[in-house]
Each structure stands twice: as structure tokens, then as C-alpha cells.
Write a structure and sequence with these properties.
There is one protein chain. With 474 residues, the chain is of the alpha/beta class. It folds into 3 domains: 4-97, Rossmann fold; 110-316, UDP-N-acetylmuramoyl-L-alanine:D-glutamate ligase; 326-471, Mur ligase, C-terminal domain (Protein-Tyrosine Phosphatase, Chain A, Alpha-Beta Complex), CATH 3.90.190.20. The chain is 33% helix and 25% strand. It has 15 helices and 23 strands. The chain has helices at residues 18-29, 46-51, 60-65, 84-91, 99-107, 122-135, 207-218, 230-235, 288-303, 308-316, 344-357, 372-386, 412-421, 433-443, 462-471, and strands at residues 9-13, 33-37, 56-57, 71-74, 95-98, 112-117, 141-149, 152-156, 163-167, 172-174, 178-181, 190-193, 222-226, 244-248, 255-262, 267-273, 276-283, 326-331, 334-339, 362-367, 391-394, 427-429, 448-453. The strands form 4 sheets. The chain has a 10-stranded mixed sheet. A 6-stranded mixed sheet has the order 18-19-23-20-21-22, with helices on both faces. It has a 5-stranded parallel sheet with strand order 3-2-1-4-5, sandwiched between helices. α6 (122-135) crosses α9 (288-303) and α11 (344-357) packs parallel to α12 (372-386). It is globular.
């Protein structure tokens, strides 16, 4: 197979997806000609495409009439390889490649590659690792599953980089047609794994299949594994002990993390590495899960040979990733955040982090389930996780274009029955998003933290919520 990076012009199907946008930025930094197609709908990546003068179409018929380009990249979005644009490219003899396989080709350009994997927490962890290497003057190249980390684009290419950092997604290449895990396309030297969980019922039959996939991905790599995750613990006996190091709150970890304190501005923790005291760390992230994610980055950087004092200074200044507990607005004592959490473990971890950071505030969650398959499979766990907030509103399911609604029985009525059956009354399941906006003014208090949460478009309610906050009496 000819190397797809040796061509001149590239077309990205679903160019507004965060990974696709960051690939587009990298290709442009390589001096390539880049274009693509996506919907007119507003995405968080719109500003990146505009700022980088990357032009894309929205009409498939117009794109089909244009002069063909050299390389066509697709993901699971917009029917993937079944999209008419991709089918025409194949007929025309053009180079067609999946997103995951293309990222692997980029990875091969660099002497040292580090993949961050895990069903939860990988975007924050990848972002922190890339940010730390920048601040440590290591000049990394990277692809992160977000539009912005701090004020840095989520994609970056430097020809002379030693390090390539990327987020390794465990989803399938193009379900249901191609359920091969993207993980199995990647061959990095180093892997950080934050956890293993059952998150994609349209790809994996059960947690055992997920674990087998991760074990294959782990084969012959240097691993940094979270020792607190039970599913990671269950696969450790199948790994060579010389192959991996662990981080976590357990005393048996190679890097032991000890939470110390948390307020509205900082979290502090101490760490010991193989029994050696590394001192106290201060971060601008919150919750035990984020301490754990930072631990994975510290362990990786130590293994790469960086100085612990420099690592401490670097991680202290990192604070934000787009759509990861991102502060959107504050007024009248009310704070509005937005978060991407969509799995029960992520929902619970985010709520726990808010409780640690804002000890005296009520938590109001506005959650939107994403995909029928995930919601149907995890409905009880989702509602239970949301109940950890003081009050939670659940919007209708945000569907995946890869699913047929008629294949599923899950809906708001089913979710209401589940909540009633398990005796949860503080999770209010709504038939429309407008129902949430109509009810919110009567529930909001002046000392609340409000969080829009989910992997769909729930963040677009921000203007309505801001108007409610503005009109709320002090």
C-alpha cells in the first residue's frame, strides 16, 4: 500500500468531528490541500476550521460534481464507506482510508508515540500530556479528541517532533458494517490506560470482549495502567509484569497517589514512586478521577526521563479542555458548566468532582443521553448516577446517525418507568428540551452549580439557561 501521506490533496468526510478537524489542521501544517463535507449544524470545531481557513461543503451533490482529490478519509459518521462521495472516490481509483488507519500513518512519522486509551478520561489525560510536553519544551505533535486544550488547538504537527501523543478510541471503525476496534489499528510504543469499561454495545457484546480487545492492543507495548480500575486489575495476570507500571490510590501501585485537599481553585495530592516521596502536587482539576488521570501523565513523563520538579510546575498551570467541566457563565451566585460525560461512570465522577470543589452548593444536572444502544443497555446505571446530583433533568435521547430508531424500544416513557421502579425521584425525565427550560426557573437557587452534560447537543441550551440565570433574583 502506498503511503497516504505522500499525496497532495485530501478530503475529509465529516470534517467537523473533533478528530477529523484536528487531522485537517495537521495536514494543512504539512502543506497539504484540505477540504471536506459536513452538516450546516453548529459544532464546537467550527471556529477551528474558520481560523485555519479550511473550507468545507455542506451539499453532497455539489461536492460530487467537483474535481476529485487524491485521498479520501472517512470515519463512522455520514455512513462512512457507504457514503456516495466515498463510493465515487473508490470507483475513480482514489486512495480511500479510515480515520483510524490514517492516524496510524501519522503516528509512524515519529520516533516515540504515546497513546492514551480508556473508556473514560482519555481526552483530559491526552490533553494534559500534550500540554505538559509543550511546556517542557519537547515540541510534541498530537491529536486530541477536543477542539481546544487551554488555548491550544487539539491537533498539531511539527516535522522535527520526537513525540507524537494521540487519543486512542476504542470505538469501531464503522459500525455496524465494520466493527473492528480502532484500537487494533494503532501500534504505539507507550500506552496510558485510564480504565476499561462497557460503553459501546453496538460494537462489543460484553465487557469480556472489551477486555480481550484491550489486551490485544496492549501486546508488546510499554504500559502505564490505572491500578484502581477493576477491569484493568482483572487483565494484569495476563500481562508480563516487566511490561507495565501502575498508578493509583492503592498502596500496591508503582506510583501511589494520596489526595490531600480541594477547594474551588485547586486540588492537592502527594505521590510516592516505588516508595520514594515525590512531594505535594497542586492542580486546577477536580475529583479523584482527575487526580488519577494526572497520575498517569506523571508516571509516563517520569518514564520518558523528565524531571519531577519540572513536571510539578507544568501540570500546575493546566486547567481546561473544551467541554470537560468547562465554565460557561456565572452570575447571581449561580455557575454554569458544560461537560461531555455520557457514561454512568463519567456522570458519577463529574458529580463527585463538583461536590469536592463546591462543598456548599447544590448541583443541578441537565443531561442528554447519547445513542439508543447505550441508553437501552445502561438505563438503570445512568439514572442511578444522575441521582447523585441534588436534582437532574434528562432530555430525550440524542440519536446516532448509525442507528435506526425503530430497532430500539427505549424512550422517555421507558426511562420514567425505570426511575419509578428503582425509587429515584430527583431525576426528572422530560419529553422535550423545552420542558427542561420551562421547569428550570422554578428549581434554580442562588447558590447552584448547573451542568449541561452529554455527548450530543445539550450544550446548545446555554443561551436559554444564561437568560434564566440573568433573570434570577440575587
Amino acid at each position: 500500500m502506498k503511503n497516504p501521506l505522500l499525496y497532495t490533496s485530501y478530503f475529509l468526510l465529516g470534517i467537523k468531528g473533533v478528530a477529523m478537524t484536528n487531522i485537517a489542521i495537521i495536514l494543512q501544517q504539512m502543506g497539504k490541500k484540505v477540504s471536506g463535507i459536513d452538516t450546516r449544524e453548529e459544532f464546537i470545531t467550527d471556529v477551528l476550521l474558520k481560523n485555519n481557513n479550511i473550507v468545507y461543503g455542506t451539499n453532497i451533490n455539489t461536492v460530487l460534481k467537483k474535481q476529485p482529490l487524491d485521498v479520501y478519509i472517512y470515519s463512522a459518521a455520514h455512513k462512512g464507506s457507504e457514503n456516495p462521495i466515498i463510493k465515487k472516490a473508490l470507483r475513480d481509483g482514489k486512495f480511500v482510508i479510515s480515520q483510524a488507519e490514517f492516524i496510524e500513518k501519522i503516528r509512524e512519522l515519529f520516533p516515540t508515540s504515546i497513546a492514551v486509551s480508556g473508556c473514560h478520561g482519555k481526552t483530559t489525560t491526552t490533553s494534559l500530556l500534550a500540554y505538559s510536553l509543550i511546556k517542557l519544551k519537547a515540541q510534541p505533535s498530537f491529536i486530541v479528541g477536543t477542539s481546544l486544550l487551554q488555548d491550544i488547538y487539539g491537533g498539531n504537527y511539527q516535522q522535527d517532533s520526537r513525540y507524537f501523543v494521540f487519543e486512542a478510541d476504542e470505538y469501531g471503525i464503522q459500525p455496524p458494517k465494520d466493527k473492528r476496534s480502532k484500537l487494533l489499528m494503532y501500534h504505539p510504543q507507550f500506552i496510558i490506560c485510564t480504565n476499561i469499561d462497557f460503553d459501546h454495545p453496538d460494537v462489543y457484546e460484553n465487557i469480556e470482549e472489551v477486555k480481550r480487545t484491550f489486551l490485544t492492543f496492549f501486546s508488546d507495548r510499554k504500559l502505564f495502567l490505572c491500578s484502581d480500575d477493576p477491569h484493568i486489575q482483572s487483565v494484569l495476570p495476563k500481562l508480563d509484569r516487566r511490561q507495565y507500571k501502575t498508578y493509583g490510590f492503592s498502596d500496591s501501585s508503582d506510583l501511589v497517589l494520596v489526595p490531600l485537599s480541594s477547594d474551588e481553585l485547586h486540588t492537592t495530592f502527594s505521590a510516592q514512586y516505588h516508595g520514594k516521596d515525590l512531594g505535594v502536587f497542586s492542580i486546577r482539576l477536580f475529583g479523584d478521577k482527575n487526580i488519577s488521570n494526572v497520575g498517569g501523565v506523571i508516571l509516563c513523563l517520569l518514564e520518558l526521563g523528565f524531571n519531577i520538579d519540572e513536571i510539578k510546575k507544568t501540570i500546575r498551570s493546566f486547567s481546561s479542555v473544551k467541554r470537560r467541566f468547562e465554565l460557561i457563565y456565572k452570575k447571581n451566585g449561580i455557575l454554569l458548566f458544560d461537560d461531555y460525560a455520557h457514561h454512568p461512570a463519567e456522570i458519577e465522577a463529574t458529580i463527585q468532582a463538583i461536590k469536592q470543589r463546591f462543598k456548599s452548593k447544590r448541583i443541578v444536572v441537565i443531561f442528554q443521553p447519547h445513542t439508543f444502544s447505550r441508553t437501552e443497555s445502561l438505563k438503570t446505571a445512568i439514572i442511578t448516577a444522575l441521582s447523585k446530583a441534588d436534582i437532574a433533568y434528562m432530555a430525550p435521547i440524542f440519536p446516532s446517525a448509525r442507528e435506526n430508531r425503530s430497532d430500539f424500544t427505549i424512550n422517555t416513557n421507558v426511562l420514567k418507568k425505570v426511575a419509578k421502579t428503582i425509587g429515584i425521584s430527583n431525576v426528572i425525565i422530560c419529553d422535550t428540551k423545552r420542558d427542561i427550560i420551562n421547569q428550570l426557573p422554578f428549581q434554580l437557587h442562588s447558590n447552584d452549580v448547573v451542568v449541561t452534560m452529554g455527548a450530543g447537543d445539550i450544550y446548545k441550551l446555554k443561551d436559554d439557561i444564561i437568560s434564566i440565570i440573568d433573570s434570577h433574583a440575587k
